[in-house]
Amino acid sequence: MAYPHLLEPLNLGFTTLKNRVLMGSMHTGLEEEKGGFDKLATFYQERAKGGVGLIVTGGISPNFRGRLTPHASQLSFRWQVKKHKLVTDAVHQADGKICMQILHSGRYGYHPFSVAPSRIKSPITPFKPTALSKRQISKTIKHYANSAMLAQKAGYDGVEVMGSEGYLINQFICTRSNIRTDEWGGSIENRCKFPLEIIQAIREQVGQKFIIIFRLSMLDLVEKGSSWEEVVYLAKRLEKTGVNIINTGIGWHEARIPTIATSVPRGAFSWVTERLKKELSIPLIATNRINTPEIAERIISSGQADMVSMARPFLADPEFVNKANADLADEINTCIGCNQACLDHSFVLKRATCLVNPRACYETELNFVNAQTKKKLAVVGAGPAGLSFSVYAAQRGHDVVLFEAKSEIGGQFNLARKIPGKEEFDETIRYFKKQLEKYKVDLKLNTKFEAHYVNELEFDEVIVASGVTPRQISFPGSDRDNVVDYQQVLKGDVSVGKRVALIGAGGIGFDMAHYLGEPESKTMQPDQWLKNWGIDKSYTNVSGLLDSPVEHSPERTIYLLQRKNNKLGKGLGKTTGWIHRLVIKQHKVITKSGVNYVKVDDDGLHISINDRPEVLNVDHIVLCAGQESNKKIIPELEDCGKPIHVIGGADLAAELDAKRAIRQGAELAASI
Questions:
Q1: pLDDT digit string (tens) for 471-514?
Q2: pLDDT, tens digit, for every residue of 23-72?
Q3: What are phi and psi of 334, to 5 degrees?
Q4: What CATH architecture is 10-346?
Q5: Side-chain-facing half-sphere of 81: CA atoms under 13 Å
Q6: Is 539 a catalytic residue?
Q7: What is the DSSP code string of 479-523?
Q8: Nearest-angstrom CA–CA distance, 166 and 217
Q9: Helices 228-241 & 270-277 angle (0-180, nearest 10)
Q10: Which of 50, 327, 509, 625 is most buried, judging by how many CB atoms fall within 10 Å of its CB?
Q11: Superfamily assignment of 486-519+555-625 in CATH?
């Protein structure tokens, strides 16, 4: 067995989990859609068939005020049990186990009915919560127990009580959000009374043969969070009160430290689980940025944890565990931690899915059944769109020939993976390469597609996925040798000087600022990464924060410029944009908006802002002003007499959008 510790059963006494893999909680948005629970049942059933040991659902509120949004899901009434039973029956039919997460948003509720221990507004929501009265606290505890009882009636194997990430229970635990002076505030004993009474009430309702997981915030990463001694105190009390498993929670949502984005090193927080494991006898779960069976096996075999939690990796590949068990790790569609289709969607109340797996949460709608008529298909370009189409079309039985003018597949991914913190794009290229082999796609590298191939090689249809080219902008001096585009820099065609101006402050501009500001990526150096973000593994201070942030000494002077007069990075990802903005701040990048580009000469780049002239004495000017569709081949194909389909960047060249490109390729493959 390739991963013996990961795949070893875990005996909880009254029940046994078939392996040490937990599919962590993640809201999909199906919970609120009409007919969404039918789709949710199929979604979870596929993951259960995929071999995962235990599934935890997205957060379900125990009452109305605990909802994340006005229309978010709750389980408070018996009539709500029926739809949950659709999910549990589907999972059990696949020989799986599933727990429902009970989550009360507290002051994170995005509605005017939110409540909290104290009337202190969260920095990430617009509503100031109402402070819970003593009577309301007692009722809320009963609501948790009632929700757990209803979950048991619905057929769940247990519940996970969300006590981390800054939600209501976490708000009671920390003085940051709990300034009460009664028996629910003040001392650590009083502040921990709320979670302990919740667990006690749940256990009394559900009996002993029902899994209770508590998600404990082991590292708050905010001021006035818990000290290590307080974390240990609560963990030991939870164990005595009847919790079966403790799951690791890292960081409040309002913390200004990345915890799950692709720039976070793999397994970067498993050390804190290991530290607590020495204090307890019940199983502990490590979490955050665990996305391969190798890293999961290492965490368990080294004794850092008893289980590992992976949420987004099961969006990316429902067969993760089965593939690991069959020693087919190279066929796993690895989560790259981008957040673009999952969390970014959830935060704007859209259905979650996955950039690298567009079927995620669309299992009843996007399928690749065997083609009734086998076709010979030419695909032009092996970037994300072309790769996606080729693999899915070949999976359906079509004869696919993939033409790529360059010597490697991947398109823009080959540039993206060079950005510090985006090394995970290597995994997507590896996955597609393996799938091309598996489904016998005829890959022709170093081969520029010619229009006459269509009839000479008897193709039935042509799919143009030729990608994008950098947008060029013209002003006096823009043809000088020191004016280059981002692709030239990332390919290594240009050696950039110590003073650089970046024209364009979209995603490409921010990536280039990071690339030029951090010559050596810290993503592959976990300890250095933790220090850079102010995290102290010795846990001397509360929340595990260093006394003062690490001072960065940039090797380059970088200007990030944009024509628009609005905030730089406005169009960046909902859940990761703040990280990119902090990174360029760390590298002391000088930002300017409302810029008019006048000329380039021997003195540098001449600009004006609000009619005030300025000269930037720079060695190079890098164009990051977006891209244009590469459609050169399309006019040549107009007379071929065969259907032509245009997808990916060749179809629409806005910001680089692999999410749209891969989905577009998949949807065309499903219908062709």
A1: 889 999 999 999 999 999 999 999 999 999 999 999 999 999 99
A2: 999 999 999 999 999 999 999 999 999 999 999 999 999 999 999 999 99
A3: -75, 135
A4: Alpha-Beta Barrel (3.20)
A5: 14
A6: no
A7: TSTTEEEHHHHHTTSS---SEEEEE--SHHHHHHHHHHH-SS-ST
A8: 8
A9: 60
A10: 509
A11: FAD/NAD(P)-binding domain (3.50.50.60)
